[in-house]
Each structure stands twice: as structure tokens, then as C-alpha cells.
Design a protein that fits this description.
By secondary structure, the chain is mostly beta strands. The chain contains two helices and 18 strands. 30% of the residues are buried.
């Protein structure tokens, strides 16, 4: 009986903590009910608290019926190592919904997510071992460069990126631009996991479709094309296409993906060129 009594006290203490957390969230124009956090967006950045080594927690993010993120992160509950960030400036004035697992630690973690006008001052690029000439993103895991091209004053660099921490998962296409190949501006990920893009965005290539052979350009401007491997589709790896009509600041998935269906286990990393002699695109792929 004594043991049962102690367990009841512990659970009551947890409930009080969550109620208090919920109250704080409501003061910041948001609510937390069970495993769902709703928040009216008033600032540019969504800051997600990360603790290296914490269990991976699934986060689904919606604005209305649109799912704009489907990720797993090492969600912090108290001792925060750093904040991962998502640019949600397109949703200012709207209410977003963040859903996680029905587990106590996950619920405590989403209560710590913040909406702020700027990124926290965490000494970016002043760290002892931070590269000062070679490009690196502010946070997260980075690997091979993917699409590289020049268009209207900008050198574009895309790269394999896990923007939410160091643990494997959430493979995205990071994106940065430069006008001199030395000083770089980090942009939001060009490709990332969400409802209409299952799985991860593996390596690939990018081109400027100067003559609009794809018919994806508008207003006389050539489209920018990203070719990549989409993983975890219903048929395994597939080759997909995304494109931009605003100098690479936002990206849309091609409406008839996949452009190449699954060809076998592990097919990936499409390299696409335009063959002027044959007047056709040619795609090379790793099998």
C-alpha cells in the first residue's frame, strides 16, 4: 500500500507540472493539451530544444490541413544543448499545430518549443573548432554537396543536412547562397520530410533549365530544377523532381513524381544534364 501511495503522489506531481507548463504556454498565445501544442505564429522562427543523446521524438507540424514538417528529434525536456530552428515566416498570423507522442517526456518537450523573432545568440562561428573559410550550417549534421549552380548573381550550394541535431534521420537538402564563393548566407532547407514527400531527400543534382525544356518556367524566366532520391516511398527509393520560380527561395515538388520509379534496392543519387546534341535530358543513377 505504501508503494502504491508513493506512485500516486508522483503522478499527481507530474500532472501539476504539466498544468503549470500549459499555463505558461497559454500566456504566450498557445495551448498545450495532452500531446498537441497549438500556437499562433507571431514571429519568424520556431525554436526546437535539442538535447544530444535524448530519445528521438516524432513531431508532426500542421497549419490548417497542410503538413509542413514530419520529423524526429532528440527533444530536450530541461537541459537544452541548443535550439534547432524552422523558418515559419510564411505562417505569421496563422495557428500551427504540433503533435507528438503520448509520452510524458515528449509532452514536456513540446511545451519548451518557442516562437521567436530571431535565432538565439549561441556564439555561431565563434566556436573553437568551427571552420572559418569552408562553409558550414549553424547547427546540425552536414555531408556531401549536391546541386551546385550559378543564377542571377547567386552561387547556390545544396548539401545533405540533418538540421535538427547530430543523430541520423531527417535527411534534408540544406541550402546556402553566395555572391563571391567565400561569404555564404544559409537559407531554409530546400527539401525536407513532410506529408507529400515521404522519407528523406538523398543526394542528387541541380540545373538551371535555361530554355525551359521542362515547361516549368513562368513569366519568361527559366526554372531551377532539383533532382533527388526520395526514400521510404511505398515502392522504396524513387527519383523525384522539385523546382523553383523565385531564384531558389522556395521549392515545389513536381506534380507527377516520381520521374523515375524504383529500379532496384538502393537506387539513388541522380545526376541530370541536358544533351544539346540529342535535345533531351539524360539522367545517370547509382544502382
Amino acid at each position: 500500500m505504501k508503494l502504491l501511495y508513493q506512485i500516486k503522489l508522483t503522478l499527481i506531481g507530474v500532472a501539476l507540472t504539466l498544468i503549470q507548463t500549459n499555463g505558461n504556454a497559454q500566456e504566450n498565445n498557445s495551448t498545450l493539451v495532452d500531446s498537441v501544442r497549438t500556437m499562433k505564429v507571431s514571429n519568424k522562427y520556431l525554436l526546437i530544444p535539442i538535447k544530444n543523446g535524448s530519445p528521438m521524438r516524432k513531431l508532426l507540424m500542421h497549419v490548417g490541413k497542410e503538413e509542413f514538417r514530419n520529423i524526429e528529434v532528440e527533444l530536450a525536456t530541461s537541459d537544452i544543448d541548443f535550439y534547432a530552428w524552422i523558418d515559419i515566416s510564411n505562417y505569421i498570423g496563422n495557428t500551427i499545430k504540433i503533435t507528438t507522442e503520448s509520452k510524458l517526456e515528449a509532452i514536456k518537450g513540446i511545451a519548451l518549443i518557442k516562437n521567436e523573432p530571431s535565432l538565439p545568440d549561441e556564439g555561431f562561428y565563434k566556436e573553437s573548432y568551427r571552420l572559418q573559410v569552408h562553409y558550414s550550417p549553424k547547427v546540425g549534421w552536414v555531408n556531401d554537396p549536391n546541386g551546385l549552380f550559378y543564377y542571377k548573381g547567386d552561387w547556390h550550394l545544396f548539401y545533405q543536412h540533418i538540421p535538427y541535431g547530430q543523430k541520423w534521420g531527417n535527411m534534408s537538402w540544406g541550402h546556402a547562397v553566395s555572391n563571391d564563393l567565400v561569404h555564404w548566407q544559409e537559407l531554409p532547407p530546400a527539401l525536407h520530410s513532410k506529408k507529400d514527400m515521404p522519407g528523406y531527400a538523398y543526394s542528387g543534382s541541380a540545373i538551371v533549365d535555361w530554355k525551359n525544356h521542362s515547361s516549368l518556367g513562368i513569366n519568361g524566366e527559366p526554372p531551377l530544377l532539383l533532382y533527388f532520391s526520395a526514400t521510404h516511398t511505398a515502392n522504396g527509393h524513387e527519383q523525384w523532381l522539385a523546382y523553383s520560380n523565385d531564384k531558389g527561395r522556395t521549392w515545389k515538388l513536381y506534380g507527377k513524381n516520381p520521374i523515375v520509379p524504383n529500379l532496384g534496392e538502393g537506387d539513388r543519387d541522380p545526376k541530370v544534364i541536358w544533351d544539346e546534341t540529342r535535345k533531351e535530358f539524360v539522367l545517370f543513377i547509382f544502382l
